[in-house]
Amino acid sequence: MKIVFATNNQHKLQEIRDILGDTIQVLSLNDIGCFEDIPETADTLEGNALQKAHYIYDHFGVSCFADDTGLEVECLNGEPGVHSARYAEGTDHDSDANMNKLLLKMEHQNNRKARFRTVIALLLSNNDDQPQCHMFEGIVNGVITRNKSGLEGFGYDPIFQPEGYQETFAQLGMDIKNTISHRARAVTKLADFLLNS
Predict the structure, then answer these.
(1) Which of 52, 47, 45 is nearest to 7 (CA)?
(2) Which are the catalytic amino acids?
(3) Which of 64, 129, 156, 164 has its CA at a distance of 20 to 30 angstroms from the CA of residue 115?
């Protein structure tokens, strides 16, 4: 089975391919010749994931899925949330700038509780004009550390310590992260659905 993942982010792509294995061939946007900047203008993770999936389906007519992930910090009322990738003003996916801003905002906070949440929107083509739509969610709880630790991973991984571990995602490494992460949990649900439907 072939399916398009609406991303060109090599980290995400590899993570998803590792989780899904050989049973499902995951194509990137590059693989189908999509080089447009897909809009992400919704104010929720669910909305962004659906917006991206519908863009691919409407323009290319292929079964696809898209995800959106946010880091939600309890003492900041869920910030950065849907703005996680562009949290630091004037930047786009600048992980260091985003982490620095978050650590600064939380400098005097003792409540360090946070969670990573991934939402996946899956659109499967069928004989109708309207694709079948399915949503999957993965959550991992943890805390925001006071300093960056670890060199693996990406995004906020150096400052997020998942529940039940003494290390950050960036210290644990991709093998462990891929089994316990928010994206892994959402993708496992997606994979179970695809393999059993």
Answers:
(1) 52
(2) 68
(3) 64
